Amino acid sequence: MAEIVLNVEVREKTGTGSTREVRRSGKVPGVLYGGAKDPVAIAVKSNEFRKALYTGKLLGHLVTLKYGEETQPVIAKAIDMHPVTDEPWHFDLYRVDEHQQIKIDVPVHFAHQEESPGLKRGGALAVVLHSVSVSCSADHIPEEIVIDLTGLEIGATVRVSDLKLPTGVTAATDGDVVVASISGAMAEAAEGEGETTEEAGEA
């Protein structure tokens, strides 16, 4: 089951005035969507929501929603932050079954940059996608997708089809889509500067 539990309250009123009142009372307003049921306006105590958010395992992960004695597995799909205070301002949760197949974006991270000959020679890592859409069970969402840059030269391209995904996880993005590449612009510029210096020395 999910590691994070959100204790929610059902909001009887909706609208701008209601959400302001919720925030003044020290809570974060949100909406529960999905499934065969109607959307429900909910709220979570601000301190509890911040604690869950700062674990890094709230957005895009399976979460247990608790209302009284009732529990429901959900996915946190969107969290809006206040532009000035950077405090949680609103959130959206989606109902799911724990073993339901879902599509979700998973962040991409890069490993062993120091083992890439292309980067050692002054190449630049050009990241096209910072996350990739995958299909998986709601209770087996990957924390991240790691791309190993070991051995990659200038001009190398990593496509979705090259990704090593965990068992039971498949890409929901076309395999030909480029995730990242190693550009030679920086290396070529350095070589050009070297040639200019040599020419000036010869002159």
Structure characteristics:
19% helix, 4 helices, Ribosomal Protein L25, Chain P, alpha+beta, 203 residues, 14 strands
Order of helices and strands: EEHEEHEEEEHEEEEEEH
State the assembly state of the protein chains.
single chain
Overall number of domains? 2
- pLDDT < 50 stretches: none
CATH topology of the largest domain: Ribosomal Protein L25, Chain P
Supply the CATH superfamily name of the largest domain.
Ribosomal Protein L25, Chain P
Structural class by secondary-structure content: alpha+beta
Strand content: 35-45%
CATH class membership of the largest domain: Mainly Beta
Q: Mind telling me which CATH architecture of the largest domain this is?
A: Beta Barrel
Describe this entry's structure for a reader.
With 203 residues, the chain is α+β, with helices and mostly antiparallel strands. The protein folds into two domains: 5-97, Ribosomal Protein L25, Chain P, CATH 2.40.240; 102-193, RNA Polymerase Alpha Subunit, Chain A, domain 2, CATH 2.170.120. It has four helices and 14 strands. The chain has a seven-stranded mixed sheet. The protein has a four-stranded mixed sheet with strand order 11-8-10-13, with no helix packed on it. A three-stranded antiparallel sheet has the order 9-14-12. It is elongated and about 60 Å long. The relative contact order is 0.14. The mean pLDDT is 88.
